[in-house]
Amino acid sequence: MFLFTLIPILFIIMGAIGVFFPRISWYLSVGWQFKNAEPSTAALVSARIGGIFAIVAGIFILTSGIFPK
């Protein structure tokens, strides 16, 4: 049952990284594949929007009772 609590918390943590540190989020997702690459503005905005969605999903899963306690 601990896993059912851990997954939404990981969603929230990764979402917060995407919102507050979009360059780190970009690097972890695609930036590591390229040498001396910089993210575009669109990539950074996308990372922030994805982070917001991840935080909302994590909070929803944590509070909705979808998973058994």
TrEMBL record:
The protein, known as: DUF6199 domain-containing protein
InterPro entries registered for this protein in UniProt: DUF6199
Keywords, in A-Z order: Membrane, Transmembrane, Transmembrane helix
One Pfam short name: DUF6199
DUF6199 domain sequence ranges: 9-63
Superkingdom: Bacteria
Transmembrane parts of this sequence: 42-67
